[in-house]
Amino acid sequence: MNIIVCLKQTFDTEEKIVIENGAISEDGVEFIINPYDEYAVEEAIKLRDEVGGEVTLVTVGPDRAETALRTALAMGADRAVIVNDEELFGDQFTTAKVLATVLKDREYDLIIAGNMAVDNGSGQIGPRLAEELNIPQVTTITKIDVDGNKVTCERDVEGDLEIIETTLPVLVTAQQGLNEPRYPSLPGIMKAKKKPMERLDASDLNLDPAAVQSPTVVEEIYLPAKKDAGKILSGDLADQVKELVQLLHNEAKVV
Amino acid sequence: MMNFELPKDIQDLKLGVRDFIDNEVDPRSMEIEETDQIPQEIIEQSKEMGLFALSIPEEYGGLGIGMIGKVAVSEELGRTHNGYTTVIGGHVGIGSVGIVELGNEEQKRKYLPDMATGERIGAFALTEPSAGSHAYNLKTTAVKKGDKYILNGSKHYITNALIADVFTVMAVTDPSKGPKGITSFIVDKNTPGFVLGKKEKKMGLHGSHSAEIFFEDCEVPAENLLGAEGQGYTNALKILANGRAGMAARNLGSCDKLLEMSLDFAHMRIQFGKPIFEQQIIQHYLAEMAMETEALRSMTYRVAWMVDQKMNVIKEAAMVKLLGSETYNRVADKAVQIHGGIGYISEYPIERFYRDARITRIYEGTSEIQKNIIAAQLHKKYA
Ligand SMILES: Cc1cc2nc3c(=O)[nH]c(=O)nc-3n(C[C@H](O)[C@H](O)[C@H](O)COP(=O)(O)OP(=O)(O)OC[C@H]3O[C@@H](n4cnc5c(N)ncnc54)[C@H](O)[C@@H]3O)c2cc1C
What we know:
The complex is a heterodimer. By secondary structure, chain A is an alpha/beta fold.
């Protein structure tokens, strides 16, 4: 079985966001594999070990994203593809189109993406890519079984469980709970550097950047307004209630 | 051109190990300390990651990362609970190096693949009640009988004895020859006449256990002889020398962690209306800790490099073991001082490092013995 994993390198979830000259600064920031994509990698490796085949990682992103690919290769994926052409970077529309172009001439049975990336949090790449490739999709899965051509997924629907049967080829997106990603083993890390890493740009893909240009325009990036420290009332209970009502009326203007 | 940078793949190994240590081991260090046990899941995960394979060449299922690689990983292991660090350090250091360096092809094929996966744990048994620093004053005897050696005697303070499967044991085959009458053997724990003694209670290194062992007409097959008869003491010295860079690296990791924690604490702790970091004496403590840690780092990696170049490192290995343990103790002492009361309270990790640091000046050759070795090397051309 040929399994494709769509993977994005994101900010470490513990990083503080700093905005500089209207853009998010990457200075001194640590990057990780998007946590949902880590579930995707783990599931792909497990399925590959069960039924055989290959796991190919695909990312659209800058050179630094190779580190995330190497980590996933160290976990056990077989090969990686990176589209590191700035002209092909854009919004989810662009990325899905680029990914579809990468995949259209490759063999794939199962595509696993993260449910969403923790940076932009749009959750659109998986569904858009499935549409581009015209294959079925099951999002936010917490379990997957592949039996020959038959695929059975469990998905989390706001607390309820939905069981969906479909057939290959299919695209699924990984939700928390799907598995517990492994740590790359030391031999895995040593082997990762010898695994194939394909680097592609627009001309390799025969893709006109203008045709996939992002329709989204970013007007401004800003941090949420800082919350002022809360106000603690004190004194006699009856006075406190009076003061609170007054504040809700006159200051917070919520009643 | 001189290059002080680690190879890229070794940097990746370090990062991988740090990620695992920070997320899986360190959060459980209080539990390890209190229960005096390393949780089995952590041991299993560590085996799966390949941490038990650090010393073993690739052709026997190991990593083949040389001493530089081993030292780099050991540094990361030193950043967490030293009991955990010692369980692995004892196995990948003195516990397996004997077979790697001195074993014949058959012995290597028989033992190393399982030792690389951690399925079999290795231990090193030299010390006896009569033979501590005076390491060749052994009373354990090995008498050849047909195709077997019959061992009688006892050992104590043997790290990992309770969980080990394979022991590198030094015993006297010819009492008339002193150090040249000692021979080393590979002893399986299942050998008849091999008896484990009791676990020794100790100041620190909780979760890592040392114990006595007894040989009661213990029959070791002659094919388990390690190296040649009469070479046992030289073998022991070689094994210990090889372990020294690894121990220095573990101490380096602990120093680095203590420096990090102390620096954070000094910026956070407010007294007299400002962080204690603003007191010059605290800055100077931290400056000294940082400088000593950096000096240790330089020497540790240089000795590791010398080992990989197959250079003679008797003197340098003794130096780095001495520097590593003495530095660790000084750094731990300053860390306690900077932390004040909290540095003495068991709910915080500082006092644990302080206690765990203490043994490093004693085992694998005391600080005094390291100085003797260095001086003997310095004296050589005058002798
Ligand atoms: C927790 C722990 C784990 C250990 N693990 C192992 C293990 O796995 N395998 C193993 O074989 N051993 C192990 N040991 C033993 C350890 O290596 C010895 O304890 C150490 O070598 C010191 O020997 P000793 O305890 O007999 O002290 P002694 O040799 O009695 O030393 C007492 C003091 O006298 C000093 N001294 C002795 N001779 C001289 C001299 N010639 N010049 C100057 N000073 C001298 C020493 O430096 C020390 O300060 C372990 C010990 C401990 C405590």
